[in-house]
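Progress report, Aim 2. The chain analyzed during this reporting quarter is listed below.
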Amino acid sequence: MQLEDYIKEQVHKFYWEDDYNCATTTLKTLSNIYKIELDPQVVNAAKGMHGAGKYGAQCGLVEGVLMFIGIYGTQYGFNHANIVRNCYQFAEKFELNFNSLKCSDLRAGSFKKTDAPHLCEKLTCEALMFAHNHIVEISIDLLY
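Predicted structure tokens for the chain:
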């Protein structure tokens, strides 16, 4: 199965079957791709990270990846400064690519009770491919 198809399958499952938010979906999808087990506390910490609890602040697609970079980097021996630098670089690239880090800018709509659920499914898939590419770059940088 192609990675893009796997991501679409995972995102759809996590959104529609498990009703996870974008940050949790991002964390769990990346952990599955990279075969890194998440501590339940980490998953619990992401429960309110979808735009800061629907406030519209930093997007959970960004927050989930930043959390994962910390987990991934620690597992593979990155030092603290390297993890921070890679988080900064991801946020900078994300903002350039998607034009914002804010949920209220990125979300296809707002957080109204009349909104359809999981409006960000397509964006989530795109952001996860973007995150994967960044993580691959991080891994290559470690080799050289």
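The mean pLDDT is 87. Residues 121-143 form the longest helix (23 residues). These observations will guide the mutagenesis work planned for the next reporting period.
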